[in-house]
Each structure stands twice: as structure tokens, then as C-alpha cells.
Amino acid sequence: MAELSKHFEADKVESKWYQHWESKGYFHSEPDEREPYSILIPPPNVTGVLHMGHMLNITIQDVLIRRARLNGYNACWVPGTDHASIATEAKVVKRLREQGIKKSDLTREKFLEYAWEWKEEYGGIILDQLKKLGASCDWERTAFTMDEVRSDHVYKAFIDLYNKGKLYRGLRMVNWDPQAQTVLSNEEVIHKEENGRLYHIKYVLADDPSQSVTIATTRPETLLGDTAVAVHPDDPRYTYLKGKQVIVPLVNRAIKVIFDDYVETEFGTGALKVTPAHDINDYELGKKYDLEVIDIFNDDGSVSEAGQLYIGKDRFEVRKLIVKDLEAQGLLIEVEDYRHNVGRSERTDAVVEPKLSLQWYVDMPAIAKPALEAVETDEVEFFPKNMKNTYRHWMGNIRDWCISRQLWWGHRIPAWYFEDHVAVAESEQEALDILKNKSGNANLALADIKQDEDVLDTWFSSWLWPMSVFNGWFDKKEMDYYYPTTVLVTGWDIIFLWVARMIMAGYEWEGTYPYKDVYFTGMVRDKKRRKMSKSLGNSPDALKLISDYGADGVRFGMLSCSPAGGDLLFDDKLCEQGRNFSNKIWNALKLIKSWEVDTTLDQPEANALAGQWIEEKYFDVLSNTDARIKEYRLSDALMQLYSYIWGDFCSWYLEMIKPDYQKPVDPASVQTASAVLKKICIMLHPFMPFITEEVWQALKAEDEVDCIVSRYPESRAFDTALIGDISQVQDIVSSIRDTRNQNQIKPKEVLPLSIQSDEAIKQLFSRSGVEPLVRKLGFLESVTMVGEGEGSGYAFIVGKSKYYLESNEEVNVEEELIKLKEELEYQIGFVASVDKKLSNQGFVSNAPAKVVEMEKKKLEDGQARIQLLTEQIQRLENS
RNA sequence: GAGACUGUAGCUCAGUUGGUUUAGAGCAUUACCUUGACAGGGUAGGGGUCGGGGGUUCGAAUCCCUCCAGUCUCACCA
């Protein structure tokens, strides 16, 4: 074998193995007789580039899928992207504009051509980036929400819901994004407190200009569309307004005054202007009092003809102008600063404009029930559990889902119109037949009917993802095998947008859940707990991180701070730790490989014991890790492996069996060390696939398979007595080191040790290999059993036994006494607390026998230590 | 406004139905050691009255009440 490099060279190794795995087809899955383990990627936007959230998400999914593969499941991880209507259309429009092309100059078909071009060019970038992280997705299955198979599902779902009466077209007040010029669902509107102003404006009475009423509004520009002023019926200040009309300033329209207890007398002036076209509450008032609805805005947020004034100017510009004009006319009474909630578009950040319009809706209460129950009963299990609360609350108050979007990029709504008639159909021809029927006009031609111009909300395709990726409605073969999938891994921020709707869709069409478990990851934040964002510039470059720390290092970093649900405070340091960990493993391999083997040597007892121990401990860790992962506690699982590999394997085990400098080693020890390191590779592989494959390859036999497709060792019982004994050995060795440390004795200066022998000690040292092991690790010349009162040198206590490290140095009696007395004090306190417990009759009679036993043992041990300490103190004082 | 969650070492967090040596881990920190596996490594240490206050219990970080601080979700009154 070629000389191993000083450090683990991640970049070379990663591309090498990824290509190898892919070319061997290890990531690909086909239904077979094995049990499936399937995961669907939460499809990232085609517009996206890899960011920290993806990295976390992908790493977790890859851990689960690689683990399933190693456990012998037929593991299938389906990747893909979603078409992201709003975001993608915005990017395409921008790109066209840069080329001097206006969207409005293009036909729908031409625009879509450009859009597809854009998608082909950029849509795959993020998937390629996932590969850099080591994602073992089945790339042959890569899906896109707008490809043919997926689209077929979307249309079918729409038509089916419509036919079942669970989808309708209705006139409603919607959230309008004037920048993207489309409607948004409630979930796409982000409400935040912002600084605004409350304008007090005077409306004079129509029949008596000397009298007036002053209203308060945050949006003076909407007065152009006012059709009433409202006050509370019991408000004594406004009784004079009964039966009166007031004049809308500037436009000079006479409107009526209405009296409704919706108005809060406390707020503002207690008088409210009513603009039914531009406020949801005003709209309700309008309906109640049959008010005129004047829509004063164009789709881009500029004032329309209906506004009469400021026509064509933007709403925020108009706000300024109108304030000035009101002031000029003496109608602006007061302006006060006011903090209030403003809704902005999640995608464009434009202030959302409430707007009345005709849109398509899904009747959510009609389909929510089974999905709510499924989560309540843990048929679909949430990790962490408390996400159930959030889910329950939203599902219990669910509102209809507005699914039309006034865009071109997406699935065009399969609805055709003729006059007032609507046809929802798979094809234009079918729609024509329906409309002929509905209108009673048999001569209706294709040219007479018109398809809806709008497309569907992107989530309307995403919610079908668990079914559509397997072509589930048109071919049962894969569907029956892979569905329901095993687990969904996603951020909690899209629980409503996506997760809840997917569960609903699962029950609506398949009668069962889309996945058994949902693992909600936290949001990645920076050290200061700020959300990672482009504008803050605090989001590390994902690819740079990988090149700096290696994919394994970054995976380690992401995982080691990823409690489910909580925030994840990201710090480069964690990746550095991961990189160092890779390096540590690499060097363990180097060490073992560097040993010269002498086949004539027998295995020393100590090495045999060490080998047994590290093997038993392996199975301890294996079963522990297994339990953690079942609960999706990946961070814990990884920490277990980290401390086993770094602590037990490298720091203890390798030191135990290490031959003296430049001495050869026996074949059995190398054999065990290699075998355990190989098993470590399998165990760690899901977390850190590259380093483990590399090390595995260096150790594996010619005819052995690659690490990625090998099998986990069967979990088995392990020898707890042996593990306990070695743990005692470790305690003894640590105490020896501590004693040296505290007394400035060189760590490797070879000294004799005597032990005041007792039953426990005899038993421990009767195990073959214990004595030489203690000698080797403690740098001891000899280990001698002595009787009570014998032994000299630095004394220390482990368990309830006394040890003496003999040294040529003069023992500093005074210092030694101080230490011993401190220790004695602690032990006395300890024993007192235990004794207090045990002398409490309530405790002894109520606590379980096991607990009482434990306390008695604590007491005994403590008392024994007190005795040893007291003796030692006396001895020193007398000397 | 309604609800949820969190508060444990300098930092990030574990602590499973109240009971395993008078509270654990990782990182950071301190001292010492180390030119032969290790972008360092090793060894050992210091550091917390578990947000405050009550209560239930033989026993509370863990259960209940209350206060304080923070985070988030949903809904929103101009």
C-alpha cells in the first residue's frame, strides 16, 4: 500500500467515491422482495442555490437513507425540484427585461418557452450541489413538479375535487401582490409590525359644511374608494350623524354614515372610513349595508380610473400626494405615529393589497378531518411531538385555500368558460362538450370558449408529491411498493404550506398517510441567533464550507447541533471539529497500518483483554446508537459514536495495544484492531460517508463489498462485567495520571504502585490481562498488593480501595494533607446526605427496594473512603 | 388579542414515566506533557444553589401554582 498522507484529503476522496458509488448504481432502487424504506426530498425551488437549510435537511435524510441501506432495506430516496411559480416567473421576467424584452409583449406560449429555457439552464444547479454533500439520492428518479407525470396528477386532482364539490370558484377578498401581480394564499403573507402613521381626516357633512366628522386611517389614499363612514351606534359623540351623508374629501362624493358596533369607540377618533374594495372588514360592512364597492387600484398598485384622481400613480406615491392635498384644504387634522402590522408578500416583499376578486378555492374543512385525526392519534408521528399543537391549532381553524395565481409559469387551471358557464375538464374538447350541454347551445365552437388564464399555486402540485413521484394514479406498481413512504424530513416553517396539505392529500386520495413519521428540523441561525439571510450576509457559502472542511466535516457540523425542532446555531467551528474528527480516524488507520507485524509473536494478555473490551463496547454503542436514531436523535447518536471512536478506540484502545516505539506487533492484535475499525466505518458511514468508505477500502479484503452497501453487524448482548472492569482500570489509570500531574511527576516516569488489597481488588486483578494493562497505561514498574497500613508514597482512592504511587521524590506532607482533608470533607458531606435519606423512615418504606439498596451501597462506599482517608491523614500527621 | 414553546456551566444543549455516588456532554477555558498516528495530540482540572418564589412528595432540574425573561405560531381594529 502506498504511503498514507499526513492528513485526510477530503476533496480528492469525496469526488472519487461519489463517482464510484454512482457508477455502481448503489443509489438506485427498484421494487423487489425486500422491505422498502423510502424518503421524498422536500423539492427545493428550481431557482434556489444550496443554503444551510438544505444542507441540514439533506444531511439528515442521507443519514437515514444510508442507514436503511446498511440495514438491508430497499432504500429509495427520490430527489426533485419544484417549479416555484412566483419566484421563477420573477427571475425569467427579470432576465427578459435585461435582454430588452417585456413580458407583456410576449404571448403566453413564447414566454413559457423562455421559462423552460431558464429552467433547463439553472434548474439543476441545486441538485448538483447536493451531490457535493454526498446525498445518495436515486438520481434516475429525479422529478419536477411540472414534468408530464406530475402535471397529470395536478389536473386530475383539480378535476376530482371539483367534481366532488370540494373545489369552487368564488368572489372573495384576496391578498394581492402588486409586484408579482398575483394573488397569494394566507400562508404566503408575512405579517410584521412596522412604523406607520395614523392620519386624522375631516369629512364634512353633505347638508351642512360647517359640521364634520374626523376619521382615522393608516391608508389615506384609499379614501378615493370610500363609500361610507362608520361609527358606533352608542357613541354619544356622533349622534348628530344620524341619517346624514358626508363628503369624501377631494373626490367630493357624498356617502352615507352607518352605525355598527363593529367600530371601536376607543380607537382613533371612533369614526371609521369604509372602503369595501380594499379592506376585508370594510368589505364585510359593505355587504351588510349594501354599500357600493369602488375598486380604485390597478393590478400593479397604481390608481385606476375609478379613483378619479392621481390616476396611474403608485399607491405609496398617492399617499404622500393625498396627504399634502388634504393638508392644503385644511382637512388633515392630525398625524400620529403608529405601529401596526403590515402584510408583505413572502416572495417579493411587496405590501399586500387586499383586493376583491374571483378565484379558485379548495374547501379545506371538507378534507381536513382525517388528516387532523391522523396526527392526533400518531398515525402520522411528529418529531418533535410539540409540533402537534401547532398543527392542531391550524387544522382546527382552517380556511379555504386560494389556489389561483395570476401567472403563466405553472399548471394552467383546467377550467373553461362560456358566458356564465364553467367547465372543468381534462381537455379543451371535453370542456366544449360540457359547455355545450350547460349552455344548451349545440353549435358552440372551441373559439367561443375561453380557458382560465391563471395557473395553480405551486403547493397545489407539491401536496401531491408523495403520490406523483411514483406516478401513483396511473401505475400502481411503484405506488404499492413505496407508498406510504417512511419519513419526511423538513423545516417546521412549511408545516402548513406543505406538510399539512400533503397529509390531507394522502387521505383524500389514497385513504392513508403519505409517510409514517415527520421529522421537523430547526431553522439554521447564526451564532447570534439571527436567521441566515442573504441581506444580512451571514449565510456561509455552502460550497466553500465543503471545500474548507470536507463534506464529512460539514455533515458533522450540521448534525452535531441539530436538535429536532429547535433553532440550530451554526458555527464554522462545528465543521472544523468534524474535519478534525475525520482526520483523527484517518490517523488511527495510519497508525495501525504503520505497525510492523511479527507473525511469530503471541498476543500479550493485555492486548487480548483490550481487544475483547473494545469489541464488547462496540455492541454497547451500536445498540445505543440504534435507539437514538429510532427517535431521530441524530445529534445524540453522532456524539455517542464520536466519543466511542475518539475516546474509547483512539485514546484508550490504541494506546492499550500500541507496541513500544519501533517494536513489532503481534498479528492477532492488528487483526482485531483492523476488524473493529472496519466495523466502526460501517457504524459511522451514514454520518460521514466519505472518510468511512476510504478507510474501509484500505482495510477490506479483496472480495469484500464497498462500505456503503455492506451490512450493519447484528446487534447482540454485550459483556457488561468486562466493560465495568475496564472502566475500573480506566479509573485507576486516570487517578495515577492525576496524582502525577498534581505532584509534578513526569507522566512517563516508570514507578511502582502498591494497592491495599481487598476482595474487589483481588477479583478485578484476577482477570487475565488487567495487571499488565494497568502497568502499561500507568507507566508502572510493578503492581504490588499490600496489606492494611503498608505502602508508601502518594496515596489516592479509587472506589473504596487505596493505592500508593511510590516515588523517589519527597512527599510534600503539608500539601498532601490539605488535599486529603478537602477530599475527606467532601466525603463527609456526601455520606451525611445519603445518611439523611436512609434515616428517613418515609424514604426507606416508600422508595423502591432497588433505590434503597443503591443508597446503602453509596453509604458503605462513602464510609469506606472516609476510613481510608482518615487513616492516611493520621499516618501523615504522625510521620 | 388567542395559543404554544423555552429558561440547566462562558457558549450550544442532554437530562426518557420524580429515585444510578450531594447535576451531565461537546465546545471554550486553565495547568502540565509531547518533534513520530493526528491541520495538532495527550493528561488532568476549574466552572452550575438547574430563571425567581411558593406548593405536592420520603424524595423535584423533572409534577402543580405564580411571577420574571425570551422565542415562535395563529388572528388582527381603521
Describe this structure in words.
The protein has 879 residues and is α/β, with parallel strands linked by helices. Among the domains are: 182-354, Isoleucyl-tRNA Synthetase, domain 2 (Alpha-Beta Complex), CATH 3.90.740.10; 582-718, Isoleucyl-tRNA Synthetase, Domain 1 (Orthogonal Bundle), CATH 1.10.730; 750-878, Helix Hairpins, CATH 1.10.287. The chain contains 27 helices and 29 strands. Strands 7, 8, 9, 10, 11, 12 and 13 form a seven-stranded mixed sheet that branches. Strands 6-5-14-16 form a four-stranded antiparallel sheet. β18 and β19 (421-424) form a beta hairpin. The radius of gyration is 37 Å and the shape is elongated. The model has no long low-confidence stretch (mean pLDDT 92). It binds one RNA strand of 78 nucleotides through β8, β12, α7, α10 and β25.
E-strand count: 29
Mean pLDDT: 92
The termini sit apart by 61 Å
Beta-strand content estimate: 15-25%
Name the quaternary structure: single chain
The CATH topology of the domain at 182-354 is given as Isoleucyl-tRNA Synthetase, domain 2
Layout: helices, strands, pairs:
Layout: H1 10-23, E1 36-40, H2 52-70, E2 74-78, E3 80-81, H3 85-98, H4 108-122, H5 125-132, E4 143-144, H6 148-163, E5 167-177, E6 182-184, E7 189-205, E8 212-217, E9 228-231, E10 245-248, E11 253-259, E12 271-274, H7 280-289, H8 315-328, E13 332-345, E14 353-362, H9 365-376, E15 381-383, H10 387-396, E16 401-402, E17 404-405, E18 415-418, E19 421-424, H11 428-439, E20 450-451, E21 455-456, H12 458-462, H13 465-468, H14 476-482, E22 485-491, H15 495-510, E23 515-521, E24 524-525, H16 542-559, E25 568-569, H17 572-594, H18 605-630, H19 634-657, H20 667-684, H21 689-699, H22 720-742, E26 751-756, H23 759-766, H24 770-778, E27 780-786, E28 794-798, E29 801-805, H25 813-838, H26 841-846, H27 849-878
Parallel strand pairs: 1-2, 3-4, 9-11, 15-23, 22-23, 24-25, 26-27
Antiparallel strand pairs: 5-6, 5-14, 7-8, 7-10, 7-13, 9-12, 10-11, 14-16, 17-21, 18-19, 18-20, 26-29, 28-29
Helix pairs in contact: 1-21, 2-16, 3-4, 9-10, 9-15, 16-17, 17-19, 17-21, 18-19, 18-20, 18-22, 18-24, 19-20, 20-21, 22-24, 25-27
This protein binds one RNA strand of 78 nucleotides through strand 8, strand 12, helix 7, helix 10 and strand 25.
